[in-house]
Amino acid sequence: MESYALPDISTPGGLEPIVLAQNEHAYPPSQKVQDAVKAALDRGQLYPDSEWVELRGAIAAVHNLNPDNIVCGSGSMELMSSLMLAFLSPHDRLLMTQYGYLFMRTLAKLVGVTLDVAAEPNYRVDIDVLLTELKPDTKLVFIVNPGNPCGSVIHNDEIRRLREALPDNLLLLVDEAYAEFVDDDFYQPIFDLAELGNTVITRTFSKIYGLAGLRVGWGYFPDQVRDQVRKVLNPSSVSSLSQVAATTAMQDQQTAVAASRQIAQQRDFLSNAISQLGLSVVPSQTNFILVDFITQQKAVSAFNYLREHRLVVRPMAGYGLPTCLRITIGTEEQMLLTAKTLTEWQGQSYE
Ligand SMILES: Cc1ncc(COP(=O)(O)O)c(C=O)c1O
After folding, report:
1. Which of the ends of the chain has fewer CB neighbours closer than 10 A, N or C?
2. Is 281 in a helix, a strand, or coil?
């Protein structure tokens, strides 16, 4: 099988790269988080809490959830892996969408399931198209909302409609890694779907909470699904320092909300600047944008030009979008530099 392809984030001539390729947070963890982590080092000789009691309590309080149904993992990637390992075997089928998170394709190979992929017309998940791809052996349906790399949002009524249309014995996994960036009124939580017993919702501390390096994800699981997933999950995979960092970050919603607003402002700035260059930007509700350069040659040329100027963005050929680049929203300064560099690139590419 092919390995899950992480981006090459090096720059020519050993210049220090400005990495806008992995949808990481623009800013370091808050002082509160850093202080809490330093203090927790005092108990570094002990194994972490394998029940994540404080962390689950903090998540449950913010989202008004039952802590018993929260499962934590070393990033949401680990929760997805565990769910696949616990529930799928080689004769099953997994259904996902065209631009759905690529890691799922790696997991499908690992477990040996047959993968079905529904088209995403106009960079959007279309529930009716997805439903036409359903097969009798489909065991799991996987959707990402908002999507990566397109950044578009599926109306939550649509997800409820999907759930109603799916057989009860089919699992639905909704990856909401970027949910906290969405500010549309229609984007209401769907955690209650877990009560149906067949729907799992995952979230992460890697994006809005800026803790990608500490590896903490969480999910809302129905009782029986949680029990099976916990059998295959490494009980000590979330380190004590990571648990403290995530708990502190979750308890500080003010910082998260402020970060989301700031990212949205910077996203709008960059989207406008790029649109003014005549390039098309897919409307995004996340901390990244997808830019379509119309031809692969132009996308490669812009990628190389940005890279020569230390700006490392993400080529999208791996997603079947060879004419596009995905740019993570960084600091104000980084966005100004990105806009300026792309403007220069366009000027010189027309000379
Ligand atoms: C759609 C999506 N889901 C999940 C993840 C992984 O998140 P985590 O860091 O929690 O494993 C990412 C990371 O980029 C992502 O883009």
Report:
1. C
2. strand
Are 5 and 313 in contact by the 8 Å Cβ rule? The answer is no
The reply to whether ligand 1 has any atom less than 6 angstroms from the CB of 147 is: no
User: Which residue has its alpha carbon closest to ligand 1 atom 7?
Assistant: 76
CATH code given to domain 31-251 = 3.40.640.10
Q: Ligand 1 in contact with 212 (CB < 6 A)?
A: yes
**What are the residue ranges spanned by the domains of the chain?**
12-27+254-349, 31-251
pTM over 0.85: yes
- CB neighbours of residue 88 within 10 Å: 20
Question: What is the residue-wise DSSP string for 285-312?
Answer: SSSEEEEE-SSHHHHHHHHHHHHHTTEE
Assigned architecture for domain 12-27+254-349: Alpha-Beta Complex (3.90)
- Transcribe 187-228 into DSSP letters: ----GGGGGGSSEEEEEESSSTT--GGG--EEEE--HHHHHH
